[in-house]
Write a structure and sequence with these properties.
The complex is a heterodimer of chains A (186) and B (136). Chain A has one domain (13-173). Chain A is 69% helix and 5% strand. Chain A starts with a helix and ends in a 16-residue tail after the last helix. Chain A is mostly helical. In chain A, β2 (72-75) and β3 (81-82) form a beta hairpin. A three-stranded antiparallel beta sheet of chain A has the order 1-2-3. In chain A, α5 packs antiparallel against α6 (144-170). Chain A has helices at residues 4-12, 14-40, 42-61, 90-102, 108-139, 144-170, and strands at 66-69, 72-75, 81-82. Chain B has 136 residues and is mainly alpha-helical. Chain B has a three-stranded antiparallel beta sheet with strand order 1-2-3. Chain B is elongated and about 60 Å long. The N and C termini of chain B lie far apart (43 Å). Classes of the chains: A mainly alpha (186), B mainly alpha (136).
Chain lengths: 186, 136
């Protein structure tokens, strides 16, 4: 088979190279997550339990009466929310990491620090999300489905996109976009 | 507007059609039906079938529009349109016993959204860097 077009593309387009590296990382992450981490459950369990504990503690601190049992967090008087494996932000942490690892440039120490900082930030964002879930069941139970579906788009993705953007500026490596040819502005 | 249409498509077209098609002796079945998605379960890792033009589409579009990436908007839209038919064909393929296809479908589901999002972000960054904010 002739792979010269792939070689040529890799040689000439940093964006193609970056997207291919990112794609491979995401495939690997999916395989590791779905076939090892999720069935194993320990990391998911840690994230779920610590998230529920912290969210419950914070709600308590702010004056809400809460009930918490392992993965369940409820404002007293409601059925509460159960944080299952796969709903604790771990998948999103992988999504965040893939970009930071694949994006070229930047010293390794900065990359590691940025990865660690981002993971911690996303963990606390998930704690905030769990608090929102528990409160939404208390205050607006009819909108629970919408809150559950769209919370990621309002809480997680703005953070991930901002961190990705910051990394592109910190790493100081501009990828000459082939997209510039697509855009009507160019 | 999108979600009610998705709900109609899921509850009145796709799910009844495939539930009818997947007879009781078929190893594959449909579960966890929601407004815009359902799971395909069987002797393989469950496959989440999420209708195109979901939240990811709008999130990505929300970056392409300010970047004025008309061509990428077109590619993204066409991709999602094509995906609708690809998903239906994929369900058929899995239902007929090619369970390995579920792995391909799962990997695709995880990767395509992120790659579109990354392209959108980089395009958005390009526009930002061309129009740096002026200090006072």
């Amino acid at each position: 088979m002739n792979f010269s077009f792939i070689k040529k593309s890799l040689r000439h387009s940093p964006l193609t190279r970056f997207l291919m590296v990112a794609g491979v990382i995401y495939v690997l992450w999916y395989l590791v997550y779905d076939y090892y981490l999720l069935p194993d459950g320990r990391l998911d369990e840690f994230l779920s339990l610590s998230g529920v504990n912290l969210a419950g503690g914070l709600l308590n601190l702010f004056g809400w009466e809460i009930y918490s049992d392992t993965r369940i967090l409820a404002v007293t008087g409601t059925s509460g929310v159960e944080i299952q494996n796969g709903c604790n932000g771990l998948e999103l942490i992988g999504l965040y990491m893939g970009f930071i690892i694949a994006y070229p440039g930047g010293p390794i120490q900065k990359r590691v620090a940025f990865l660690a900082g981002g993971i911690i930030l996303l963990f606390f964002a998930n704690v905030f999300r769990i608090m929102i879930f528990a409160l939404s069941i208390y205050y607006v139970p009819t909108f629970w489905e919408q809150v559950h579906t769209y919370s990621s788009y309002f809480i997680f993705y703005p953070i991930v996109l901002t961190l990705w953007y910051l990394w592109t500026t910190i790493s100081d490596q501009e990828i000459p976009l082939f997209l510039s040819g697509y855009s009507s502005t160019s | 507007m999108v979600r009610p249409v998705q709900e109609e498509i899921i509850t009145k077209l796709i799910v009844p059609y495939f539930e009818n098609k997947l007879s009781t002796n078929n190893q594959v079945s449909i579960s966890d039906v929601r407004v815009d998605q359902f799971n395909l379960v069987g002797p393989f890792k469950p496959v989440k079938i999420e209708l195109p033009f979901n939240g990811w589409f709008w999130l990505t579009l929300g970056l392409f529009i300010p970047a004025d990436s008309k061509r990428m908007i077109k590619i993204l839209t066409l991709y999602h349109l094509a995906l609708f038919f690809i998903l239906l064909i994929s369900i058929q393929i899995i239902a007929e016993g090619t369970f390995a296809w579920s792995v391909v479908l799962n990997i695709h589901d995880h990767v395509y959204r992120v790659l579109f999002l990354i392209i959108a972000l980089l395009d958005f960054v390009r526009v930002l860097s061309r129009n740096p904010r002026k200090g006072s």
